[in-house]
Amino acid sequence: MDTNKFGKYFSTDVLHESPKFPGLWDASSTRHLKEFGGGHLSVDCIFINRAFLMVTQPHQHEFPQYLHFYSADPDDQRLFDAEIEIALGEDEIHLEKHIITRPTALYIPAGLYHGPLNFKIINKPIVFIDIAVAADYKRVGNTPD
């Protein structure tokens, strides 16, 4: 960005159309910038404007993760007209399903199984922010999503 002393702390390489769901939404992301900020975390900020199944199966990571679900209405963040389903559990068979119907932040400790993640009803667009406390977003095991 800038060639001055602190310009190295900025990146404008953050807008990318999703390669996995072309045309469905655009993502603002640092996930592909492995060394950005010292490689401590990666962030995806995704505008969800229609229902779809983002993650089809339970999986886990070796790092903590924070998932945030917010209204995309700039006039009133309380207007959350969506329903999102996610399951959590100690293993991939015994999962507890949770329904998100209002602005929510979810902490997922390292090793906790989570998924599927289903944006089941999207009547008004929402913002989904996925923060992985790792430079390289990887799943444990062979999970293709």
Characterization of the model:
Helices cover 0% and strands 42% of the residues. It has 145 residues and is mostly beta strands. It has a single domain, classed as Jelly Rolls (Sandwich). Strands 1-2-3-10-5-8 form a 6-stranded antiparallel β-sheet, with no helix packed on it. Strand 1 and strand 2 form a beta hairpin. The protein is globular. The model has no long low-confidence stretch (mean pLDDT 87).
Spell out the helices and strands N to C: EEEEEEEEEE
Count of individual helical segments: 0
The main sheet comes to: 6 strands, antiparallel
Query: What is the CATH topology descriptor?
Result: Jelly Rolls
- Percent of residues in helices comes to under 10%
- Average pLDDT score: 87
Radius of gyration: 16 Å
The best one-word shape is globular
Instruction: Supply the number of structural domains.
Output: 1
Helix and strand arrangement:
Blueprint: E1 15-17, E2 26-29, E3 42-48, E4 52-55, E5 65-71, E6 82-89, E7 95-100, E8 104-108, E9 113-122, E10 126-132
Antiparallel strand pairs: 1-2, 2-3, 3-10, 4-9, 5-8, 5-10, 6-7, 6-9
What is this entry, summarized?
By secondary structure, the protein is an all-beta fold.
